[in-house]
Amino acid sequence: MRESMDALLITGDEDVLHEGSAGEANVKEYAVLGKHVVVFVLCTGTQRARLRRVGETLWIMPVYGPSRLFAAVRALYVARRELYFQRKLQVDLIDACDPFESALAAWLIALRFNRPLHIYTPLYSGAHYARTSAASYIFKLLSRFLIRKADSISTDSEHLRASLVRELPGGESRTFVVPRFVNIVAQKQSPAVDVREKYPQFKIILLSVRPLEREYNPELAIHVLAGVLRMYKFAGLIFVGEGSLKRSLGTLAQKLGVKEHVIFEPWEVDLTSYYKAAHIFLETSHEEEYGNSMLEAAAASCTVVSTNIGFAAAFIKNGENGYICGAHDTSCFVKTIISLINHPEVRESIRLNGMLTTESFMGKTERKSHIETVRKAWEAAIAHFQSHTTHAASQQIHIYPQDEGRSK
User: Fold this and answer.
1) Tens digit of pLDDT for each residue in 124-179?
2) Rounded distance between C-alpha atoms, residue 354 and residue 364, angstroms
3) Which of 65, 244, 365, 381 is the most buried (most CB within 10 A)?
4) Alpha helices, DSSP H, located in 89-218
5) Dihedral sign, Cα of residue 223, residue 226, residue 231, residue 232
6) Distances from the Cα of 220 to the Cαs of 52, 186, 212, in angstroms?
7) Do domains 7-181+363-394 and 185-361 have the same CATH topology?
């Protein structure tokens, strides 16, 4: 195993800048991986934070710009100003915490200073689906380009890893699945917004947190709501997310006569307010849930009704700490939710059991495994970079004196 290394992490999560925040706590754990770890935070805010040292091995530095894309380009200048001396960049590896602006900044720095590149790409990034459709398409292309330039890639999805392995040369040894982690403490904090007070017309709130895209099957949630409203007139459905299906979902809700009961909220970085307000969290995807939303909802004490995918299959015991229905079984969802509405004592028991199971399921061991997997991904990036560099050098064409004579 390689000795600890110096690394530059690049992220767009401005929460990292706030002392005592969950974002800061997250990057603190990466400090154990390096002798020195510097974190560039791509910022667009007006408040100017300063470089600060956090512990013995970690520095956090904001990189400002009028847009995050501009900040990503400016990061190249900041890297040269702050990290380049003795005629080299003083880090062994560049790590991007998302496949968009952070990855662009990381790639530019890695390319300019000839360093290995690691990119973390979640199943579907909130920063990605908060954009307009046109921008989303452009950033999707950018993401595909940058991922192909990485020496190693990590993700939180077995499904996405399998896809990357098929697409990338040597993908089997260059792609990693990091164990997911839910910040249990964050989910127990008081909500910033009282969503129930915001929508007092809903006595029961169904919640769906996901990109409004075909693979997440959001239409099912509309059909489920319509079924519930036949028996219970004061239910409502809140979608948190953006995507290409937003307009068609609104049309479907109007066609089914439930438009007044469907709310579309933009993407929120802090989802705790929604998880705590909701009575029932709906997971309707065909193949894989969005990120950690299901586990976060359960940790925040929201009852989960899900299709049989991802972590639902791993930690839900049907009827004990949650419920599982088929991806096309609208009737199962409707009957389950109506039963939970009619029997609040059952809903309370399921809610508590789900919260306790999540705390046990996503314990400290999972976080330690996450960090160790990142270490392996960094080591793989350095190994791939060195191998690629050696191979490129061996392929150089040398012109010897006798060859020059023949050419004459």
Assistant:
1) 444 444 444 566 677 778 888 999 999 999 987 777 788 888 888 888 999 998 87
2) 18
3) 381
4) 101-113, 126-129, 133-149, 158-167, 171-174, 184-188, 195-198
5) positive
6) 47, 29, 12
7) yes
Q: What ranges do the domains of the chain cover?
A: 7-181+363-394, 185-361
90/82 Cα distance (integer angstroms): 9
Phi, psi of 301 (to 5 degrees): 75, 40
Q: What is the CATH number of domain 7-181+363-394?
A: 3.40.50.2000
Sign of CA dihedral 347, 348, 352, 353: negative
**Residue range 337-371, pLDDT digits in tens:** 999 999 999 999 999 998 888 877 665 446 677 78
Q: Beginning with the edge strand found earlier in the chain, give each strand of the sheet holding 152-155 in spatial order.
A: 52-54, 58-64, 37-43, 7-11, 93-96, 117-120, 152-155, 175-177
The Cα 201–Cα 112 span in angstroms is 56
Specify the pairing of strand 262-265 against strand 117-120. Answer: unpaired
| Cα 192 to the center of its chain, rounded Å | 21
Q: What per-residue confidence (pLDDT) applies to 120?
A: 92
**Cβ neighbours around 274 below 10 Å, total:** 25
Cβ contact 49:62 at 8 Å: yes
Buried b (16+ CB within 10 A) or exposed e, 166-203: eebeebeebbbbbebbbbbebbeeebeeebbeeeeebe
- The encoded tokens of residue 321 equal 């700490």
First to last CA, the chain: 52
Query: Residue with structure tokens 């009957």?
Result: 335
Q: Judge whether 284 and 217 are in contact, CB under 8 Å.
A: yes
Instruction: Write down the pLDDT at residue 126.
Output: 43
DSSP 8-state symbol, 18: S
**Hey, what are 163's tokens?**
């896809």
| 3-class state of residue 159 by DSSP | helix
pTM of the model: 0.66
CATH class of 185-361: alpha beta
CA pair distance 65, 78, nearest whole angstrom: 12
In this structure, how many other beta carbons lie within 10 angstroms of the beta carbon of residue 85?
A: 10
